[in-house]
Design brief:
The structure is a single chain. The protein has one domain. Helices cover 43% and strands 7% of the residues. It has helices at 30-46, 60-69, 115-129, 136-153, 159-168, 194-212, 214-221, and strands at residues 27-28, 73-74, 80-83, 90-91, 94-96, 102-103. The strands form two sheets. Strands 1-5-6 form a three-stranded antiparallel β-sheet. α1 (30-46) packs antiparallel against α6, α3 (115-129) packs across α4 and α4 packs antiparallel against α5 (159-168). 19% of the residues are buried. The structure holds zinc ion. Zinc ion binds at residues 84, 86-87, 89, 103-104, 106-107. Residues 84, 86-87, 89, 103-104, 106-107 line the site of zinc ion.
């Protein structure tokens, strides 16, 4: 059996990390992490031949489990929150501080009138960095961003407005989704084997350990 050659025009197997526009803070949003995990669970379940008995269509128990692994809690309003490393309060968003630790919105309050804009843009960068490119939540954010930029473009007078336009515009186009594997034509349409069935449930854990956990994410992107 010969290998299927990759042409130079095909996407690379290992995507380059998403390069954030300059000047945005590095943030961490637990709600987006849980969306990513949910999408991965569905992706694993939808694979042909991949119907493990324990993996039903109701993902809440699994999401709660992964939330606990990540150190998240549910707020009284039902939102996923994560602990601030500075004040120990739980927050819907963390921001990387100059000393390299995560701080909540109270500990890292941005002294700017454009605070909500900056959080909005920085969370979109976060989504792209955890390879969350699509879905209702992200598409809605991109549509909001497009509307906001269009409104801003007509009345941009200050340097800050121009900066927001320059930083926001590239985020309207998501980076190309990575190709997870290239299958030999002989395997297309065939169910995956026992090895994949054994490995698939481990996939989410590997992502949590290497990218999605606040510590792992800081290790990868903290210096950016
Ligand atoms: Zn705090």
């Amino acid at each position: 059996m010969s290998r299927v050659p990759l042409s130079p025009t095909e996407p690379r197997l290992a995507p380059r990390p998403f390069e954030a526009p300059p000047g945005l803070p590095t943030v961490y949003a637990p709600a987006l992490v849980m969306t990513k995990i949910l999408r991965m669970l569905r992706w694993i379940d939808d694979l042909p031949g991949q119907k493990l008995p324990a993996w039903g269509t109701d993902y809440r128990p699994q999401l709660n489990l992964w939330g606990a692994v990540l150190g998240f809690q549910k707020s009284p309003r039902g939102r996923w929150v994560v602990q601030c490393e500075t004040c120990r309060q739980y927050s819907i968003r963390l921001m990387l501080q100059a000393n390299g630790t995560w701080g909540c919105m109270h500990c890292t309050r941005l002294p700017s009138k454009s605070r909500l804009w900056i959080y909005f843009l920085a969370e979109l960068v976060f989504a792209y960095r955890i390879q969350l490119y699509g879905g209702q939540q992200i598409n809605r954010r991109r549509a909001t961003l497009a509307r906001m930029l269009a409104a801003k473009a007509g009345q941009a007078r200050k340097v800050r407005d121009l900066w927001l336009l320059a930083v926001g515009a590239p985020l309207l186009t998501p980076p190309p989704a990575p190709v997870r594997c290239v299958r030999h034509p002989a395997f297309i349409g065939n169910p995956r084997g026992q090895l994949w069935a054994a490995l698939a449930p481990l996939l989410v854990g590997a992502w949590v350990d290497s990218l999605l956990h606040p510590v792992a994410f800081r290790t990868r992107f903290g210096a950016a």
